[in-house]
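Comment thread on ticket #2218

A.B. wrote:
> Attaching the input chain for the structure job we discussed in standup.
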Amino acid sequence: MRLMLNVNNLNVLRGRIQVLWDISLTVGKSEIVSIIGANGAGKTTLLSTISGLLKPISGTITFNDVKIEKLPPHKIANMGISFVPEDRKLFPYLTVKENLILGAYNAKGGHVIKDRLNMVYEIFPILKEREKQLAVTLSGGEQRMLAIARGLMSNPSLLILDEPSQGLSPKVIDEIFRVIARLREHGISVLLAEQNVYYALKVANRTYVMETGRITIHGKSIELLENEYIKKAFLGL
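C.D. wrote:
> Ran it. Output below, let me know if you need it in another format.
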């Protein structure tokens, strides 16, 4: 499997406090990798650092053989990494379609935007139905779908998702994770941080467990589903 993202011995401060310690992880092409852990484990900090929103004090982040840990967020995005934060950051008083078009900031020509719209509408048919509605009028689940779809409009090779199931009903969570699983078919790699451990393990090829800013366990997700510590600490079994 071709390696796309390689994070090596990453250490990160927030203010004067160190919050990530010697983090190393990889994501391969067309692979889904999950990061699980309790709230405050450092998952969002890690994703924000990979996306360029935070800078490490040491360690490297390599994307498609290019070191990116010192680059600004817009340059990292232009290289093919799209970050969908937990709080969605939609434009509430723009329509669904307008929000999506804003995600295609790097598109050259209207035909490219049209092709990308067709792709996300095929993945999220409900957004096609809602394309003329204001984002603020959508349900929580539809807003989450719109945020992910807008992230896809930049045509990324790596989509980073922070807590995609946060605040959603079980039925909507099912749909979101079905979509995440399908992204592999489009050649898109996914790195997701998720507190819903069962769903994260079911969708991902591999999973990293974060606890207090460190990676404590790493392995194939199907094997971690049977791990006694995982079952006791995260699945309540």
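A.B. wrote:
> Thanks. Noting for the ticket: The chain has a mean pLDDT of 93.
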